[in-house]
Design brief:
With 244 residues, this protein is mainly alpha-helical. 64% of the residues lie in helices and 0% in strands.
Length: 244
């Protein structure tokens, strides 16, 4: 139960910190205000939540905080099938609680309202009219698959027993920052079905109608990434230089 609680809290922190920065701080003061953190700040916020969460909870649960990561590690032979559903349930519940708390905080500002038709409303993900850059569904799906796959490759490489000890959260956090820098204009960056769900439930039917894409594409990408790293073979005992 402590492992599932760690996943719940870690995903809660990820969504509250990452999506919270987008909702509360990205455009603080209006367009052009130097106090707003913008795209770069939101990207860093997501990376920092993973970095800090991994150091806080990684030794308890492995710090997945993301159903796509759980599926990717499962496909790569690093995670047991029996824990997939409990981890995903914990992650989604943590994300929903974060979305609820973020909604309560944001509602404390005068005039706060969510435009259900706006791109990226309440830090939601989307394509077409709901994409920050107007990208279509095909581009959104491809982007989410590729970004998630590479995220899993970085995670598996950074957490390999031969990688420098203690630095994995830094590499993983920076990878997530880079992913957001690339893909916020395309989908507002999901690569995490729980993160997408946690805010979509509070943003109206438009976000919910497209939510399936941000479950399917990241999970497919996660599985691809896990299989790629497994194929590369650093966990096999017959790899040259492996001393197991």
């Amino acid at each position: 139960m402590k492992r599932f609680a760690a996943e719940f809290l870690g995903t809660f922190w990820l969504v509250l910190g990452g999506c919270g920065s987008a909702v509360l701080a990205a455009n603080f003061g209006g367009d052009g205000n130097p106090l707003g953190i913008g795209l770069l700040g939101v990207s860093l916020a997501f990376g920092l939540t993973v970095l800090t969460g991994a150091y806080a909870f990684g030794h308890i649960s492995g710090a997945h905080f993301n159903p796509a990561v759980s599926f990717g590690l499962w496909a790569g032979g690093r995670f047991p099938t029996r824990d997939l559903v409990p981890y995903i349930v914990a992650q989604v519940l943590g994300a929903i609680l974060a979305g609820f708390i973020l909604f309560q905080i944001a509602s404390g500002a005068p005039g706060f309202a969510i435009d259900p038709n706006a791109a990226g409303a309440f830090a939601t993900n989307g394509f077409g009219a709901r994409s920050p850059g107007g990208y279509g569904m095909a581009a959104a799906v491809l982007c989410e698959i590729v970004m998630t796959a590479m995220f899993i490759v970085v995670i598996m490489g950074a957490t390999h027993r031969k990688a420098p000890a203690g630095f994995a959260p830094i590499a993983i956090g920076l990878a997530l920052t880079l992913i957001h820098l690339i893909s916020i204009p395309v989908t507002n960056t999901s690569v995490n079905p729980a993160r997408s769900t946690g805010v979509a439930l509070f943003a109206g039917s438009g976000a919910i109608s497209q939510l399936w894409v941000f479950w399917v594409a990241p999970i497919v990408g996660g599985i691809i990434g896990g299989l790629i790293y497994k194929w590369l073979g650093p966990d096999r005992p017959d790899v040259v230089g492996d001393q197991r």
